[in-house]
Amino acid sequence: VPVARVTCSVTVPGDIISYNHDETMKVTGSADRRVNFESTRLLEPREQMWVSVSWPAGLVQTEQTGERIIQFDSHVTVNPDRTLNVTETITVLSAGSQIRRGIYRDFPTLYKDPDSNRRILVRFDILEVLRNGNPEPYKAEGLDNGTRVYIGDADKLLDQGIHTYRISYRTDRQLGFFPEHDELNWNVTGTGWSFAIDQVTY
Predict the structure, then answer these.
(1) Which of 116, 168, 170, 202 is the most exposed place for a label (fewest CB within 10 A)?
(2) Cα 121–127–129 angle (5° rounding)?
(3) 3-class DSSP state for residue 143?
(4) Taking 80 as the threshold, does the pLDDT of residue 155 lie above it?
């Protein structure tokens, strides 16, 4: 089923220098530190879109050798059965401090419906986890409102430097269906990171 409308808002730590998007998106509003995007047409099943925003250097991480997420890229595919396939490519810089054996990613799976106040449990199935192109060990543990995925070998320290993780998963009950349009509101990076994120693409 095509998705009629997708919206995306990005807020950054400084005045926006520039932003860009593909032909499926348009800018619907912007302020000093926030820009809003919206799809321009129906999006077909498995079709992807992207936006990018830049801001002045030095506002997120004053010491460029510090541990951080260099790039967070998310690709979301809307499937005909209303599920989403999500692939996140997360490039990190490890200095052997907090990123010693790997990273973890929190996924909320329990929500409250704002209209009915009902608790909604969404599906979360891990499809693949890679580091630098190779399969990486992981384990999933329950949280009060979701799942935390620990990625890495508990018995092996990472080499210091840049590592790229690729997490693929499937989820459902993320789409809104309204009389005039269908809608996807997606929190691209989540809020559970203890590291600065230099750049996000979607």
Answers:
(1) 116
(2) 115
(3) strand
(4) yes
What own/partner pairs with CB < 8 Å and gap ≥ 24 does 56-59 have?
A: 56/14, 56/15, 56/17, 59/13, 59/14
23, 46, 99, 151, 167 from 93: Cα distances, Å:
32, 31, 8, 15, 17
Whether 122 shows a pLDDT value over 80: the answer reads yes
SS3 assignment for 153-199: CCCCCCCCEEEEEEEEEEECCCEEECCCCEEEECCCCCCCCCCCECC
- pLDDT-derived band at 65 (thresholds 50, 70, 90) equals low
Which is it for strands 68-78 and 25-30: parallel, antiparallel or unpaired?
A: unpaired
Encoded amino acid at 182, one letter: D
- C-alpha span between 81 and 175 (Å, rounded): 11
CB within 8 A of 116, min separation 6: which ones?
none
- pLDDT per position as a tens digit, 93-120: 998 888 999 999 999 888 877 677 788 8
Residue 157 corresponds to which tokens in the numbers above?
Answer: 């320290």
Measured in residues, the chain has a length of 202
Q: What is the pTM of this model?
A: 0.68
Tokens of 28: 């619907």
